[in-house]
């Protein structure tokens, strides 16, 4: 998985009733766009994310 600052990351719920989380990548800490990513989620909290198979990245519009 590769991402850039400003991209959107979506984390899909893995259990029934668990909602999807969405956030903006504000820092890429891996080399060449690789994880981990510092993400600001839509509810305002920030966290370091090592995305798994339940995640997808959408490139930001330039």
Query: Number of helical runs?
Result: 0
Poorly predicted runs are none
Domain unit count: 1
What share of residues is helical? Answer: under 10%
**Strand residue percentage:** 35-45%
Q: Strand pairing plus helix content: what structural class?
A: mainly beta
Question: Order of strands in the sheet with the most strands?
Answer: 4-3-2-1-5
Give the overall shape. Answer: globular
Distance between the termini: 20 Å
Oligomer: single chain
Cα-atom radius of gyration: 11 Å
Number of strands: 5
Order of helices and strands: EEEEE
Would you tell me the overall average pLDDT? 91
The biggest sheet, with number of strands, parallel, antiparallel or mixed sense and barrel status, is: 5 strands, antiparallel
């Amino acid at each position: 998985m590769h991402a850039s600052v400003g991209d959107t990351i979506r984390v899909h719920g893995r259990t029934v009733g668990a909602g999807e989380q969405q956030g903006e990548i504000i820092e890429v800490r891996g080399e060449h766009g690789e994880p981990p990513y510092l993400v600001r989620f839509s509810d305002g909290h920030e966290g370091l994310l090592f995305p798994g198979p339940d995640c997808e990245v959408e490139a930001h519009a330039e």
